[in-house]
Structure of Cathepsin D:
Amino acid sequence: MYPLVKTLVCALTLSSLVFAQSQEPLAIDLMRRGSSTGMNRSIQKIHSDVRQSRRKYASLFAAYEKNYGKQHPLRLTSQMQRKRNEGVMDLLDVGGDAEWLGKMSFGNQEFYIQFDTGSSDTLVNPGAYDHRKSKTSTVTHATFKSSYEDGTYAEGDIYLDDLEIAGLKGKNVAIGVSHKNFTREIEKPSSGISGLGYPSIQTFPKSYKPFFLELKDQKAVNKSVFQFTMKPGNGSKLHLGGIDESMYQGNMVWQDIDRNYGVYVGHASINGESVKAIVDSGTTLIIGNFHQVERIMKKLPHVTTIVEQGSLMGLFPCDQELDITITFSGKDFKLGPEQTRWGKEYGQCLMSIIGHHDMQMNAWVVGDSFFQVASIVFDQENDRMGFAWQA
């Protein structure tokens, strides 16, 4: 997937647009297609996803250092109901691989995109957007370039154009068009990525704000709040500009976050291991500190561990259930069978939690497997995250 982004493939499609009248909201439903079992995944897919996550966060840290002139605080010094001005889109799982896509349009051109809380720019492949076909496009002559730890990079040109997403509209919003494809073939129909992180990690020049910040500044949304509710089957949604209480049950617990990180970092416990958790909609797996993951796996019955290419993986009989609980602010979220089983290898199931020696940061990346059990609110107004069980 996009080097700057996460790993898996759950595609969001825009199944319907419901246009608001007067005070009513506008919503886009995100639907799921394909098998959600993911049994076609293998250890090689894990290696690919871990590499993508490492590249993504290496680029994120580089962007932060460029913007602030100092090292990102997470980076290790050593290797290591709907209201006005809200929009909702349905999410679709592409091939059961857990990448969430929805539609957005710039000018008169519409495409599918992944929405990523672990980055801040909107980038598309060549051909997805052509400024020459839009009467509202502005050529900025500005460029972007993201370099990665393996020596590769993504680069292209930045344009301004009118944005429409989930019925919300903004003018002169920045979009970057890459000179070469940066998404993988298996990610189709995805054309790129659109970041929902803070500006501190953007690779665009500071004058070109992330799209959601532009929507807030232009009063297209009343609140800088959005909500992910990713379901293993149909009914996944991204709610922009507010909170849809019908998407969760019980009370929502909150944690304050530090916007200077650029990403959304909370304090969590995973089977008793205390961790800093980057809550990342662009990553598929849960990737953590090697030794902490090792301790968790050793306490789980029926789990056999293997290490390949620096990644610690767990194998277990597919007829067994694993007891894995992630806790935020005292609320426990137990992962179900679909969230603990990520793929299959050697006739056994692969765990969705991976340990790695060389993520080079003092934090875990908590991706798709957690998003499928919780409804998560990202509140930029008050610099906090909210967590509740899905309805």
Summary: Residues 261-369 form a domain with the Cathepsin D, subunit A; domain 1 fold (CATH 2.40.70.10).
